[in-house]
Amino acid sequence: MNRRKSVRHSMCLFFAASCLLCCVLCLCPTDAEASTYDDAVRALVGSDHAAATQAWSTLSAGGNVALGALVRALPGQDQMTMARMIIAIRAIKRRNNAVQLNDADAEAFGSEMRAEKRTEVRAVLLQTLRDIGGTAALRVLERAAHDDPSEGNRRDATLFVGSIAGTEVAFFKKQTKDPSRWVKLSAYEQLAANGDASGHGLALAALNSAVGSAERQEAIWVLGEIGNAGDAGVLEAISKSSKEALSTRFLAEEAAHTIALKQIPADQQVAYLVKTLDDDSPTVRHWAANRLLRSPDSSMREKLTRYVGEPGHKGYSEAGFVLHAHQR
To answer: Which of 81, 170, 279, 308 has the greatest count of CB atoms below 10 A from its CB?
Structure first.
């Protein structure tokens, strides 16, 4: 009996080892596969239009290996080439959102990005990391949020970390020590989304910044996320002021609605937002679609897609725009 058990145990171990080997062989790229994608990247950035078109198809249908090949080659390209490569990266993510950078490619990408002197190019590279997502990209974004020389890039990187891992509270608290008030406010916005209202005083002070300034707009977002009912009147006044830029008025209107939403019991908020999709105001409809898509309910994208396809809704355009903008 013991001998029979031993044989059966050995067979199980052999079967498990065989499965593991198969998985490793499937997941680890062969030299030929890696070479195929590297060749495709070279064709994509070349002058042969037909070859570039075929390369785009090859790369956009690829997975982790294709993603790595694109990311390694992305820094240093001209703007048009970079745009084509980023479109291919997004196509890969749309086909399979589980695709991620490995640690080595992410670190190499981060080094190239830090060496890039042009602020606007680093900004595009940061957006690409946000689109890719995953743990390795997240770590590069966190470092950029701390040490990029541009306060605008540090602010964006802070928000991009929030879009990938919104509950990284320790990171956001660290960002509140940044010398830029704009970056601090972006961190407080993320903390407010986690129930931390410690940025309330700074946000109110920042409302005294110059009309139309980035800091003032960020402060509006923070007040909306904190959800203090006493701030609604201030935001509504801004939303109706002819002295304010149109973008600031829209932000204030959305923030005031966010405060109103936070006064509603949590289990009734989704129903309220769905009803608000048919509000008379396009700004409010856009806000409602955004809030719904940020809901922890994983089926919300499918529900919004159905909403867009149903006739007679006022908010089909805004909901469709938000769905498209949040594609990965």
So the answer is: 308
